[in-house]
Structure formats: structure tokens, C-alpha cells
Write a structure and sequence with these properties.
- By secondary structure, the protein is mainly alpha-helical.
- It folds into two domains: about 10-250; about 260-315, no CATH class.
- The protein has ten helices and no strands.
- The protein has helices spanning about 1-45, 55-80, 85-110, 115-130, 135-165, 170-195, 200-205, 215-255, 255-270, 275-315.
- Helix 3 packs across helix 8 and helix 8 packs across helix 10.
- It is globular.
- The termini are far apart.
């Protein structure tokens, strides 16, 4: 009997671990849309730091990210346990914020010319090279800013991950959200470390001396890496912005039954079309999510700008003491 009970217990544990593994994969896929932006933002935060200090700064931000998740994971799980109905609203708020941030990035791109952006980058480079500038203070400010950014993105990731397992037992929620939080932190900051050192690797290879074919190939690879590093950053930024609209729009769409049903009906209708019906049915939810994301982002940015203009007026109308 004892042996049978032990085997049954081990079977239950194995089944639970298998379920947790599957659900963790699903949750990771759901949160993947935020990761492109997370990578780009964190890599940009480290830019401008002295080359020898890039990895220590990434490590400092990674430790801050883990601390953020030590705060956010228990808080999210507590809300799920005591007030599970709030998860949907948290997801909707997180989705709306993603759309807001994405639309704000697009506006910034159109409202600021390439010349202005280049001038801003030149000013930052001059400030860093100025001996009067305290680089220790600048580095600490960058770390604090990156950790604040990570807190917002981590909250979005955790809430999205929790939303995928909201109908599971609490123990499975704890396991899945904790695993996703740890794995994503390691993955993001491991990749950030690789990205910020990519140009250094390229430079190192370019400086290889020798006339052999091997050395020439290394120098060519180094040249390609140096050219590829800034393009990678731009690509991550573009993909991250697109992912914000797609993920945010998907969350909003699934949270509003009428939109969700309309999306399913549209996909089903397109599926019956000849030739390209299957393809159109497959991409229609993505297109609809993107449109919803852009519209929600535009509304959120508009409301934010209106509030930004009204609030200072109210303060200025207050009588002086």
C-alpha cells in the first residue's frame, strides 16, 4: 500500500510538472511580444556608458530586475488569489499601456527629425567626454532609469503570464509565473549583454593582424558585426513597437467579448474564400489586433496630452500664498 501510494504521488507530481512545463511555454509565447521592446529599451539605456563598465551596468540592472520581480510576482499572485476578477482589468490596463507607449514612439519618430535626434546623441556624447561630468553619477542615473523601465515592463510580462493561467490552480499559477519571471530575466539580460558587446567584438576582430586568409576573414566578420550592431538595435526597436500594438490590441480585443467574437467571425468568413482564404483567415486576427492597438494607443496618447495641458492650468490658477 505504501509503495502504491508513493508511486501515485510521484505520478501526480510528474503530471503536474508536465502541465506546468506546457503552461510555461504558452505563457512565455504570450509575453514574447513585450521582449523585443524590453531588449531594445535596456540596450539603449546602457548606451553611452564607458565600454569597460557596460557589463557591470547590465549586471546591476539585472539584479534590480530580479528585485522588481520579487515584489511584483507575490503581489500579482496575491491579487489572483484574493481578487481573481481583477486580473482581467489589470490585463486591460497593461494592454492599453502597451498601445500608449507604442503610439507615443511613433509620434516621437514623426515629430522629431533625424537631425534633431542626431544632435541629441551628439550632445550626450559631448557630455560624457566632458571631464567635469561625474561619470559615476551618470552611470547610477542610467541604472536607476533602466530599473524603473524594467519595473513597468516586468509588471506587463507577469500580468500577461498570469492571465494565461488564471483558470488553473493556485499552485500551478505560482510555478508558471515564477518560472517565466526567472527565465525571462536571464534571457533578456543575457541577450542585452551580448548586444551591447557586439560592437566591441567586431572591433576586436577588425584589429586582428596578419595576412593569412583566416585573419582576413576575421577582420571581415568584425567589419560586418560593427555595421550590423546599430541595425540590430533599430530592428529590435521596430519589432518591439509592432509587438506592443499586436500584444496590446490582442489583450484589449480578448477582454471585450464583442470584439473577440467579431474577430472569430471575420476569420471564419475569410476561411471560406477561394485560393487565399486560409492565409487571410490566419493573418486577420493579427491585422485586427494591430488596428485595435493603434486606435487604443492614439486615444490614450490623446487623453494623456489633454490631461497634460489641463493640469498645469489648474495649478497656475491657484492663488499664491
Amino acid at each position: 500500500m505504501a509503495a502504491g501510494s508513493l508511486l501515485a504521488l510521484l505520478d501526480d507530481i510528474a503530471t503536474m510538472l508536465d502541465d506546468v512545463s506546457v503552461m510555461t511555454q504558452v505563457a512565455a509565447k504570450k509575453t514574447a511580444g513585450v521582449l523585443g521592446d524590453d531588449l531594445a529599451l535596456n540596450a539603449q539605456q546602457v548606451s553611452g556608458v564607458d565600454t569597460s563598465r557596460e557589463l557591470p551596468v547590465v549586471w546591476a540592472v539585472a539584479k534590480g530586475s530580479l528585485l522588481n520581480k520579487l515584489i511584483l510576482v507575490p503581489a500579482a499572485l496575491a491579487i489572483s488569489y484574493f481578487l481573481p476578477s481583477a486580473i482581467l482589468y489589470l490585463l486591460m490596463i497593461g494592454g492599453a499601456y502597451l498601445c500608449f507607449e507604442g503610439f507615443e514612439k511613433i509620434l516621437h519618430k514623426f515629430l522629431h527629425s533625424g537631425k534633431e535626434v542626431k544632435q541629441h546623441e551628439t550632445e550626450i556624447a559631448q557630455a560624457i567626454s566632458d571631464p567635469k561630468v561625474d561619470l559615476v553619477v551618470l552611470e547610477k542615473d542610467k541604472i536607476k532609469g533602466a530599473i524603473r523601465t524594467d519595473f513597468i515592463l516586468s509588471a506587463e510580462i507577469i500580468v500577461i503570464a498570469l492571465g494565461t493561467v488564471a483558470d488553473q490552480t493556485f499552485s500551478k499559477q505560482v510555478a508558471v509565473v515564477s518560472i517565466v519571471a526567472i527565465v525571462i530575466t536571464i534571457a533578456v539580460y543575457g541577450l542585452v549583454a551580448g548586444i551591447v558587446k557586439l560592437d566591441d567584438l567586431g572591433l576586436h576582430l577588425m584589429l586582428k593582424k596578419g595576412k593569412s586568409v583566416y585573419k582576413q576573414v576575421l577582420r571581415k566578420i568584425g567589419s560586418l558585426l560593427l555595421a550590423f550592431a546599430p541595425k540590430l538595435m533599430r530592428g529590435l526597436t521596430i519589432l518591439g513597437t509592432a509587438a506592443m500594438f499586436l500584444v496590446g490590441g490582442s489583450i484589449i480585443g480578448h477582454g471585450i467579448p464583442a470584439i473577440h467574437h467579431a474577430s472569430e467571425h471575420l476569420a471564419e468568413t475569410l476561411h471560406h474564400l477561394p485560393t487565399f482564404g486560409g492565409f487571410l483567415a490566419a493573418i486577420s486576427p493579427l491585422v485586427l489586433d494591430g488596428v485595435i492597438g493603434i486606435l487604443v494607443g492614439a486615444v490614450c496618447v490623446g487623453l494623456f496630452e489633454v490631461a497634460n495641458r489641463i493640469l498645469p492650468k489648474k495649478q497656475s490658477n491657484q492663488p499664491a500664498n
